[in-house]
Specification:
Layout (H helix, E strand, L loop, with lengths): L1 H24 L6 E4 L10 H10 L4 E3 L5 H6 L6 E6 L1 H9 L1 H11 L8 E9 L7 H20 L7 E6 L4 E2 L8 E2 L1 H17 L3 E4 L2 H7 L6 H4 L7 E3 L4 E3 L2 H16 L6 E6 L14 H16 L14 E4 L34 H9 L4 E5 L5 E7 L2 E8 L4
Parallel strand pairs: 1-2, 1-12, 2-3, 3-4, 4-5, 5-8, 8-11, 11-12
Antiparallel strand pairs: 6-7, 9-10, 13-14, 14-15
Helix pairs in contact: 2-12, 4-5, 4-6, 5-6, 6-7
Protein name: glucan endo-1,3-beta-D-glucosidase
Keywords: Glycosidase, Hydrolase, Signal
InterPro entries: GH (IPR017853), Glyco_hydro_17 (IPR000490), Glyco_hydro_17_plant (IPR044965)
Length: 397
Amino acid sequence: MKSHHHQLLFMFLVFFAQKIELLTAETFTGTYGINYGRIADNIPSPDEVATLLRAAKIKNVRIYDADHSVLKAFSGTGLQLVVGLPNGFVKEMSANASHAMAWVKENVQAFLPKTSVCGIAVGNEILGGGDYELWEALLGAVKNIYNAVDKLGLADVVQITTAHSQAVFDNSYPPSSCIFRENVAQFMKPLLEFFSQIGSPFCLNAYPFLAYMSDPENIDINYALFQKTKGIYDMKTDLHYDNMLDAQIDATYAALEDAGFKKMEVIVTETGWASLGDANEAAATVGNARTFNYNLRKRLAKKKGTPLRPKMVVKAYIFAIFNENLKSGPTSERNFGLFKPDGSISYDIGFHGLSSAESSLLSLKGLYIKLSPGNLHVSFKTVEGIVYAVVINSPSS
């Protein structure tokens, strides 16, 4: 019988190791993620944010830099983190491969594997923006960062991407007519070629809020909010759209197909709705923000694709965890948060605030569960939301 127990133990440990390996290689768990913007002086600490996210069961998180306080706070939490290389570093990383290697070592490798850094976003919304020198530097920076990751043996764990705004597109209505802008295409196509070689998705920042605000007279707000509406019909593809986000995603797929990259996946790296705005931002209300985010969460939970790509499950990172009081621009820019600066909810879409999150995780500390398959005793210990399995006894019979 002793060998039987050892065999059981071996099978258990192999299974446990496989589960850990799968989690390590996964770049997006499920379909729902969130952006953790920190342009504010009144938001909770990174440790408290980690507690909040784990209680909300949001595993996928994007930050816009590689702040070490965040990386340390997320250590051991199981949260899947995409760090950002800020636009201000892109030219330097493009010009100097050794600087790219140093950056990856200092801001990614040094925190693995305890902190699950699963991606690096090289710049944000560069193509289509106003700095043409950045356009020229982007591909070189992407390649140097990827090569650094590859040389360090991390290419299977850390995915390299860059996020695009809808300013890269021309003729996005109806979705099937969408193509890349002519001046963007010469920079976009080599970038897409490289991403297709390394298996990276196309990252899209898509805001039905902004699209509706740009043309409220001709766009039904219900279409933007995932509410009942007649939607739109695309004659070329014979497809019907009942919400704007699906149409924005399929417009992206149409542009990718036109450029020769039909198989590339689209991931929504930012989307959201403001809960407060200026006088000319009438759609920015708590009611609309709640409706959009509640319906978006329901739509993502269905794990379905779009009309044009029904088998490509939609994945999205919501913008954002908090309202950010130091952001510039219109009032709406400072009011995209699902949570208020004190960690309480901005509006109810099924999440709980920081105080309830802290109490729920505290109640799990020190919890023991014992199972006895045969004479094999395994103890499962839950500490701060993380489950540890320990074989405590394997007697012979």
